[in-house]
């Protein structure tokens, strides 16, 4: 049977309303009233590192070996979480998994896959926190920060912050100060966030003072003073320079720098 010809401009019949037409002819309509609720993204959980996927391009022997370590670690973790695995050596399997994650991370470092290395170090730290071996967890977070710094300074700051928090809880304030200083350096040189850099340098200086490392504290404070001056916080900068100047006078150290600090103080006042 010949098909009816449709006049130019469309058939009037196509425009006639039909009770069943819209539902039957437009099943994929984007104007469904429920679509916003069905497509709305759920709140995301805190960012957790994940195992590296197989790269799309050619894979180096080191990358292949690292992925094998990751797969072995995941197998150990799954085994430790079963009922029988928890009864018979669950903690030992988790320790083995952490070691395998570290081996994977170091293998990725050899391959110069910095993000994958950082992710693997974070996975190791996560397992070690579950095992309550905080010092090792902090150490691996620091390792993660060092490799992330090459490609993702913000992620490096997150790792150093977690490490500093761990060492603060452990009472290792000198180590916590060191990593606050690392964060400040990244904020200053990589992110250009001088306010955050000042905050972390001040925190580092406070911890160093508490551990009687006044020289290290003064180095951090001088960084604060210079950045405060850049932000036109001249009173704060002058106060810090004066504090360091008084310390140098009282301790008779670095006498050759006294004139410099005296000039700086006079300039800001």
TrEMBL record:
One of its GO terms (biological process) is SNARE complex disassembly. It is found in: Membrane. One of its GO terms (cellular component) is SNARE complex. This is Beta-soluble NSF attachment protein. Required for vesicular transport between the endoplasmic reticulum and the Golgi apparatus. The keyword Transport applies. The keyword Oxidoreductase does not apply. Residues 1-66 are annotated as: Disordered. Residues 36-56 have a biased composition (Low complexity). InterPro entries: NSF_attach, TPR-like_helical_dom_sf. One of its GO terms (molecular function) is soluble NSF attachment protein activity. It is a peripheral membrane protein.
């Amino acid at each position: 049977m010949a098909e009816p010809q449709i006049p130019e401009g469309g058939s009037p019949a196509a425009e006639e309303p039909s009770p069943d037409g819209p539902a039957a002819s437009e099943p994929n309509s984007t104007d469904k009233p429920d679509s916003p609720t069905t497509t709305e993204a759920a709140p995301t959980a805190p960012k957790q590192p994940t195992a590296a996927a197989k790269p799309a391009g050619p894979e180096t022997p080191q990358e292949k070996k690292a992925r094998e370590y990751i797969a072995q670690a995941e197998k150990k973790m799954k085994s430790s979480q079963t009922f029988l695995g928890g009864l018979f050596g669950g903690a030992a399997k988790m320790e083995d998994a952490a070691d395998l994650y570290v081996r994977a991370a170091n293998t990725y470092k050899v391959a110069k896959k910095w993000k994958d290395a950082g992710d693997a170090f974070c996975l190791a730290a996560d397992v070690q926190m579950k095992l309550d071996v905080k010092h090792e967890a902090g150490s691996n977070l620091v390792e993660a920060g060092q490799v992330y710094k090459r490609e993702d300074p913000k992620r490096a700051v997150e790792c150093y912050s977690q490490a500093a928090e761990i060492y603060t809880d452990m009472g290792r304030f000198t180590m916590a100060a060191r990593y606050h200083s690392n964060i400040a350096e990244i904020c200053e040189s990589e992110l250009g966030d001088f306010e955050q850099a000042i905050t972390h340098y001040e925190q580092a200086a406070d911890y160093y003072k508490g551990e009687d490392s006044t020289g290290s504290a003064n180095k951090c404070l001088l960084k604060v003073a210079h950045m405060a001056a850049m932000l036109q916080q001249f009173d704060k900068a002058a106060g810090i320079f004066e504090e360091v100047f008084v310390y140098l006078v009282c301790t008779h150290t670095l006498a050759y720098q006294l004139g410099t600090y005296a000039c700086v103080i006079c300039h800001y006042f």
